Amino acid sequence: MKEILQVKDIEKYYGNKGNVTKAINNISFNVEEGEFVGIMGPSGSGKTTLLNCISTVDNVTTGNIKINGKEITKLKSKSIEKFRREELGFIFQDFNLLDTLTAFENIALALTIQEGKKAKNIRERVLEVARKLDIEEVLSKFPYEMSGGQKQRVAAARAIITNPSLILADEPTGALDSKASRLLLDSFEKLNEEMKATILMVTHDAFTASYAHRILFIKDGRVFNELIRGNDSRKEFFNRIIEVVTLLGGDTNNVF
């Protein structure tokens, strides 16, 4: 299986000589094409810094990161925007939709930027993805006319529309109620299983994490533990996740 993401011996420091914080401490892992991987850890563990480094928002201090064979730690600033546009899809907790565009226009925007894309092909692609995520009925609506769950599924459609090598999701259910969270996570399963999307998701929530194939637990900037779902049901995997969260000192009363 092709490795889409390769993280090797990365470290990240903040501060100056008198006050240095080590946010990431020698982390290495790979993500294969078609995997759905979750990253969990308590507040301040380094999971958001790790995602920022992978997404090219931040730079590592030492180590290497490759996405689809490209060494991103050596990308020049003028190449980063093109790389993000072609290789990465993003799903944020606060949706990040453009208020002045309809759902259709928000999803189609990334395709319109690409050269050689005809309007007919863009429309067909948007409708195809919208059907997969059950958001056809909101395509003509503006963000203020949609629920939080609908906005997040539109954001998921926007992330997959260009067939990126890797989708990065940062606390995607953080602003959603339990029903909307389930619908979004069902959409993630469709993206992963039917559209072969490779997903790396940061979450503090054990129920959300139970949808992934594999979980990396981060503590004090290191990979503390790893769980592989295997043939477990989602409920069985959830219970195993809770055991590790307890070891990490997490709050198991706020996992749904």
Automatic annotation (TrEMBL):
Residues 5-245 form the ABC transporter domain. Signal peptide: none annotated. GO terms for cellular component: membrane protein complex. Coiled coil: none annotated. The keyword ATP-binding applies. PROSITE patterns: ABC_TRANSPORTER_2 (PS50893). Keywords: ATP-binding, Nucleotide-binding, Transport. PANTHER family: ALPHA-D-RIBOSE 1-METHYLPHOSPHONATE 5-TRIPHOSPHATE SYNTHASE SUBUNIT PHNL, LIPOPROTEIN-RELEASING SYSTEM ATP-BINDING PROTEIN LOLD. Belongs to the ABC transporter superfamily. This is ABC transporter ATP-binding protein YxdL.
